[in-house]
Amino acid sequence: METKGIFIGIDISQQSLDMASYPEGQIWKYKNDKHGISKVVEKMQGLQPKLIVMEATGGLEVPLRQALEERGLPVAVVNPRRIRDFGRAMGQLAKTDKLDAKVMAYFAAKIEPEARPAADKDSQYVRSLLERREQLQEMLTAERNRLGQCLSPTIQHQIQDHIEWIEREIADLDNLVKEKIAANPQLQEKLELLQSMKGVGQILSARLVAQLPELGHLNQREIASLVGLAPVNRDSGKYRGKRTIWGGRACVRKAFYMPVLAAIRCNGVIRALYLRLIAQGKLKKVALVACMHKMLTVLNAMMKHNTRWQESYSS
After folding, report:
1. Between 304 and which of 36, 150, 152, 216 could a Cys-Cys bridge form, CB atoms 3.0 to 4.6 Å apart?
2. pLDDT tens per residue, range 61-82
3. Parallel, antiparallel or unpaired: strands 7-12 and 51-55
4. Helix or strand or coil: residue 15?
5. What is the pTM assigned to this prediction?
6. What burial class does residue 10 get, using C-beta atoms within 10 Å of its C-beta: 0-12 exposed, 13-18 middle, 19+ buried?
7. Is the sign of the CA dihedral 206, 207, 212, 215 positive or negative?
8. Treating both helix axes as pointing N-terminal to C-terminal, what angle do 185-195 and 153-182 enclose, rounded to 10 degrees?
9. What distance in Å separates the CA atoms of residue 270 and residue 249, rounded to the nearest whole number?
């Protein structure tokens, strides 16, 4: 049965916004600037599509998405890999901005991904600070590695100066995150709720609030899949492969690593799970991932029911 309604796909680049409709097959192209975005919004208000699909493009999609959502238009931002795989399944191997927009429009009609609202502006600001922090943290790790390998005293001094500068910048970003969250009572309340779980600190809770706005709105299987902490089966016929985690929001998943190590030491529920899995012969890495999964699903339940950490979450 054919789904009724108009579906729109928008391919976003730094210079242009390429749009296609399904089933009409109409094509539009606008500049990716304030004037072009206003034209797109005006066009979409006239068409009143059932769903608009665009790819997550590292932030390029944010201004257009905000403008569309402010006018009450349904927008779904999709992982580019899903669109690419969908196009290949259709036999669409060529790639242009116009073709990508057509594939997205067809994807919107056949898959109908859920249109989830974007995070509020304060959360988006915190997210940008955290993304910059992650970039600086990677630079810091690289510089520390170089310092250990460098033999020139002059270059060692330069690297040490750069390390100290990066550390100051990270500290400044942490302060900005704290100030922005403290100035927003809703964000502050969410952080205090999340941090009531032993092992969850400022950075993880801020990442969850800013980079995982779906927390508390999905069931435990959906939230685990979204973060990439849901094991994926690899079975075929008689073959039984190892289950692995894959995909999802890597930035959120990576943020769980240090907190889960802390939780294993100070959180009785997480520690008991870890020790039980180790006693069963599980690899330490497997046990750590299972503990991350447990932490995420419990935090999701806490947000959903607006309740602080309880030892009863061990079940």
Report:
1. 216
2. 888 988 998 888 999 998 888 8
3. parallel
4. coil
5. 0.75
6. buried
7. negative
8. 110
9. 22
**Residue pair 291/274 in contact by the 8 Å Cβ criterion:** yes
**What is the token pair recorded at 153?**
């005293």
Calculate the alpha carbon distances from 36 to 32, 77, 145, 154, 183 in Å: 6, 19, 45, 51, 34
Q: Which long-range contacts (CB under 8 A, 24 or more apart) does 241-247 make?
A: 245/289, 247/79, 247/81
Give the per-residue pLDDT at 230: 75
Residue 248 CA to residue 252 CA, distance in Å, equals 9
Give the sign of the dihedral formed by CA 72, CA 78, CA 80, CA 86: negative
Q: How far apart are CA 173 and CA 135, in angstroms?
A: 12
- DSSP structure class, residue 244: B
- 223 touches 252 (CB < 8 A): no
- Pick from 122, 255, 117, 245: nearest CA to 194: 255
- Spell out, as residue ranges, where the chain has pLDDT lower than 50: 1
- Coil/strand/helix, residue 29: strand
Q: Give residue 312's pLDDT.
A: 67
Omega of the bond prior to 23 within 30 degrees of 0, cis? yes
In one letter, which amino acid is 138?
A: E
Residue 115: both structure tokens together: 């249109």
| Cα 181 from Cα 308, distance rounded (Å) | 19
Measured CA to CA in angstroms, residue 173 lies from 168, 169, 276 at distances of: 9, 6, 38
Q: Count how many residues are written for the chain.
A: 315
The pLDDT value recorded for residue 135 is 93
- Quote the tokens at residue 279: 């006693």
pLDDT of residue 1: 42
Q: What is the DSSP string of 281-292?
A: T--HHHHHHHHH
